[in-house]
Amino acid sequence: MSTTHGHEQTQGHDQQNGTAEEPATAPSAPPSTTTDETALELLVHGVGGTTPQEMLDDPQPVRVSGDDTAAVFRRGEDADAEARPDDYRGKPVPEAYVWCNLTSGNGSRALWLLLLPFMVVNLSHWMRPNARRRTRTVRLYGLLVRLLSLTLTVLLVGAACEVALDLTAWQCAGTPACADQRAWLGFLSVDAHGGGGWWSQPGRRLALASLVPTALAVLLWYLSHRTWSAYETQRPLPYMPEPTDGEIDNALGRPGFWYGRRLVSRLRSAHTAAALLTVAAAIGTSAARFDRASGGPALLNVLGWLVVGALILGTLAVVGVVVHRGRSESRVDDTLDRTVVRALPYAALALLLVTMVYAAWSRPGWQSSGRLPGDTSFGGIVLTQGALVIALAFVAHAIYRTARDPRTALRGLGGPATAMLACALGGVMTGGVAQRVADWLDGTSGLIKGPPVLLTWQASVIPPLLIVLAALCGALALRTARIKKRETAQVAVDYHLDEKPGGTAEPPDAARTSRIAGTRARAALTDKAPVMIGVVSSVTLLLGALAVVGAWTTGKVPGSAARGSYAVVQGAADSAQALGSWLIGLGFILFVTWGRRAYKDASARRTIGILWDVGTFWPRAAHPFAPPCYAERAVPDLTWRMATWTQATGGRLILSGHSQGSVLAAAAAWQLHPSVRKRVGLLTYGSPLERLYGRWFPAQFGPEALASLHRQVDCWRNLHRRTDPIGGPINLGGECGPQVDHAALLDPLAYGRTGEHPLPAPILGHSDYQADPVFAEERARLLARLKPGVPQQRPEGEQAQAEVQGSSGRSSG
């Protein structure tokens, strides 16, 4: 191995461990090169992950740089390729970047499934419509999402308080008949005469039970801190990748975009404090209310008011921290917030301990009956979430009007719709846990009141929502059948089945044609996802409002007695509530079972990993307890590798990305210095860059951003199939479209048995693009176009188009 390559490997290894010295300037010009220079193809896999053995077709690949979590591999025979350029004339040296362990590496990550609402609401932050410039409206959008995320934290911890404090410690332990059924509640229970042991007083029971939601809050804080130190602290390139003249300022190219160290730390402090304050409020307000009503000792009254006042001040401090600062992307922000912000969780914990001592004070006359005071808190959370979602919709619409794009999902309302789904998921999980625990403690005996009225009413709206979903699925099935019929005729055209067969070709087969047409039709369903999510979100918002109205007007569960003209409505609500409660319980059991299976089964864990591959690409900009953003490790990895390799060799580089790997490749290309970016060719296949990311995340992957990326890299080619449910064309306008998108590849490669394909060719869909001969042809074209050392001149038509677009960008600026 040459000295240069050996030094480059050592440098990459040191950078992974954070010990390498940062270069003071960008590699603006490569060293002198020759035509014998080695070319590099950096492969980035897609969702679900794979192994370096499969990517490189080598049983014993060599790790070039990285660690057990994410690394770059080469074939053993290619380890010293830079020292033998003559052996690689006309072909690239393949390298594989394997990042699958960032999302689906071990069984503990299956538990992230419980954090699904946090991940979904974090996605809504990035679904903001595209805006011509950063305005107050854009900042208001991010602020509303951060506040909505805060309510989800309070809702989750509130559900834990409902289970531990209300259902268990207050209701069941305070009811002798219920406590007798649970021997482990004996030391907390009261006897038939209202007496009992030291722990039988309600305040002491609540103080002890509060350890459960407190442990949950501490666990969330610990997981967030652990992932923050592993992901958000990975430094990007030390030099600023400034945009070239006439190009838009895309957020993905800003130096601080993939470095959320400060914001996640700040939000973690606020959300941890909010969780602890929620527990303190559940204990302290109940005790303070009893002290005021009973006219107890003056000292306890004073302490009660002090606790309530401290809770109010703590809430204002938490909201202030969340409101005060958003993301900082224009620079790499290494600083952390002041001690006051970092000390906020510890202050909330101290207040919680004081509240526990205050609640545990002896109050002989205090007895628990009914539900725990503060039952209306869930209604307040739901109303706050509804108001925030509606406000977010108005803000998103106002932003969309500044830069209309018909391809944007739901005309800019994709973010509010997704935020509504996050709230619905949180509500279903909350209601499911409370309902199942109540049934487990009490069964059907009716000894305790059960969960809050609102949670019971929320269960009654699930059957109507399922009916709407069934109607949507039926409509999509009819549409798929119509598309399949149309595609059946198109298959005959694509494979020339109307021509007279000759040679060894097989005649048309109706079953084969139906399978191909059906695969194409089902793949087209992806484009209808915005409609489905929009309808479900709207219906969920409406039914949620009806549930709040029902809980407020009745003040009792839907199954209570009804008279007169309301008997029919009450009976329907009663049946819907029973069915919804059963469905919530079933869903919660399936949810836990799936997570448990994923913990033990590697294949199931990989399936969940696919979900995280798509959902955790974005940084944690709204919720710090969401699963960590793997791209904050993967994008710097790719950027460092490309920058150091081109600086050391001055060679040609093809960045080859499949599926989600193409998104990582594009994000990494934006982070490169313009001089390096001009020496990179981009090859994407099965790419969701426009079909999914461009529609749902227009501010980062809209048409302007993708067109800018096409002009900034030396060349870009994209391959797609009509049978692929994920990938699609880039759909750039003007002359850029044919320059980027290849015509849709035939899938399968051959309709029947032929001389070249004596066995039936499979329908590949989203996988194995390398099996198509077009893949090798397009890769060879990219390599031929990339000159060693300096970028090749664009064709005249493409250069003119780039100049026109650049002039237009400067004029609009």
From TrEMBL:
Domain of life where this protein originates: Bacteria
Region (Disordered) residue spans: 1-64, 787-813
UniProt biased composition (Polar residues): 802-813
TM ranges: 140-160, 206-223, 270-290, 302-323, 343-361, 381-400, 412-434, 454-478, 531-555, 575-595
Biased composition (Basic and acidic residues): 1-11
Biased composition (Low complexity): 19-37
InterPro entries: AB_hydrolase_fold (IPR029058)
Keyword vocabulary terms for this entry: Membrane, Transmembrane, Transmembrane helix
Entry keyword Transmembrane helix: yes
Protein name from the UniProt record: DUF2974 domain-containing protein
Organism placement in taxonomy: Bacteria, Bacillati, Actinomycetota, Actinomycetes, Kitasatosporales
